[in-house]
Structures are given as C-alpha cells and as structure tokens.
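Note to self: keep these together.
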Amino acid sequence: MTKKAQENPAEIIAETFQSNHGQEVVILDLRKTGQNVCDYFIICHGTSKVQTQSIAENSMQDVRKKLKIKPFSVEGMKNGEWILLDYGDIVAHIFLDDSRQFFHLEDLWADAKIIRKTKEESKDAKQ
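Structure:
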C-alpha cells in the first residue's frame, strides 16, 4: 500500500471538526481574494456551548497529534458562542448555530473559494 500524499493542513483541521461533531464544516480558501488575513478559514457550528467547547478542545488535541502544531491563540473558549483557533495561516471558527447565522462569515468572504465538507468524506477518512 502506498502512503497517501500529504494533505493540506486545512483539510485535516476540517476533518477533526467533523469527527468531533462539528456541523456544516466549510473551508474558505482565501489565498486568491487579495486579503492577507490568512490562507484559510475553517468554519463549523455546534448546538450548545458545551458542544462548541468540546469540538474545540478535542479538535486541538487531534490536530496536535496529527500535525504536531497547536494554535498560537485561542479566543472565546469560556463563552463558547464563537471560539477562534488561530493557527497562523489557518484560522478556525467554531460557532453556536445562532451566532453563525448572525455573523455568516461565508457571506462576508463571498469571493473566497468555499469547500463544503460532507459526512461521507468524514466516513471515508476514518476507513
């Protein structure tokens, strides 16, 4: 069996969100937007503050194991409504559903390439 080509770290972080019950996971590829904020946004949501905190905590552990990196900064963990994990070139956002609908980052960065992750992709990654 040949080893799988190294995946994009944004894809791996998105997969950890899915495997930790993040809902509607999307990757926004910002590289060609002309904005220098970062290369990727990864966005998902949970249905309760406890769930968003759990997604963040468990995903950080998984990313540390898989990619050997940890976030430079973590914001919003205590509140749980909008948790931001700053990995430098990748900024991950974990929202409560209502907060995600209110801020709707996907619309604010509409010129970015949007990659919607599906549950089927998550199942394939685990096999």
